[in-house]
DNA sequence: CGGCATACCTGCAAGC
DNA sequence: TGCTTGCAGGTATGCC
């Protein structure tokens, strides 16, 4: 489920509960998620202080004072719920982020935050897909839930990060300095695949997923079916398309993170109306509906590219 | 290497 | 109501 903005939002949500705190207990309820969890996973985490959290692509990196890193990937359905410590445990924050989930997503939607806190405490870790529960020395309980179990965690020495198979081949951070028009054009120059597939390739740009690729292509007015290499060609101004695309990628991601941040804030507020996860997408999931570009008479269409849904407007995306 | 299908796993909505 | 089918935001793997 989560793409870069959701992972960033989850990371920010976890920080208050984890940063500077010591992991007191880890309850591991199964041996594997997508992959087997590391040997002696719980034992190796217990007693460790969390130095800081970091996001790299769609991974959350928990830096431990032992010098080890707990790397977490949420897969499609991974989510965290934080149950704060303290005598009453009120005001639970759900640190998951699902940009497409509507108001009907889950029983907690209908509950005011104080009710949610109580609800969450009473049912903490009782869902059958609650796989791992971290208990911190500040009293916070951090529950990892993953219905489809496509998520995974690993634990390794910090200095091995660059050699780790999950990270070795990751491409540039789209919000970092590494992503700019010339660089993107250079990466795409020899790629014969569709632009959509190119952007989904984590070895080129790391952190984009199906939704934000569709949205970024829409904003850049580029067809997902265009060949990736055509980004680099000079017609239409040198690097013009690549510049447009990098700008669109950054915009889309930044806005989504800002929206995620505000939903987290809202969630902790006292108002029961959450407006939670009310992202609106221009094209994603809008097949058959009118294109939102002012003056465009197009209709959003859905096609399948390498087995995945693509949404775009064939009129304004060329 | 590219491109594609398949696999992993469960839940949900739609269709019959 | 109940069954089947297809679909879902992730990536790894194997085959041609």
Q: What characteristics describe this protein?
A:
20% strand, 8 helices, 4-stranded antiparallel β-sheet, 5-stranded antiparallel β-sheet, 318 residues, alpha+beta, single chain, DNA-binding
Task: List the topology elements.
Elements: H1 4-18, E1 23-28, H2 41-45, E2 50-56, E3 59-64, E4 68-73, E5 78-83, E6 93-94, H3 113-122, E7 130-136, E8 141-146, E9 152-157, H4 165-168, H5 181-188, H6 195-200, H7 210-219, H8 240-268, E10 300-305, E11 308-313
Antiparallel strand pairs: 1-7, 2-3, 3-4, 4-9, 5-6, 5-8, 7-8, 10-11
This protein binds a DNA duplex (16 and 16 nucleotides) through helix 7.
> Whole-Å distance between the termini?
28 Å
The shape is elongated
What assembly state would you assign to the polypeptide chains in this entry?
A: single chain
Strand % is 15-25%
User: Mean pLDDT score, rounded?
Assistant: 83
Radius of gyration: 21 Å
Structural overview:
With 318 residues, the protein is an alpha+beta fold. It is elongated. Helices cover 27% and strands 20% of the residues. The chain contains 8 helices and 11 strands. Residues 87-91, 97-122 and 265-278 have low confidence and may be disordered. β7 (130-136) and β8 (141-146) form a beta hairpin. It binds a DNA duplex (16 and 16 nucleotides) through residues 1-3, 6, 34, 58, 73-78, 98-100, 129, 146-152, 166, 191-193, 197, 202, 209-212, 284, 306-309.
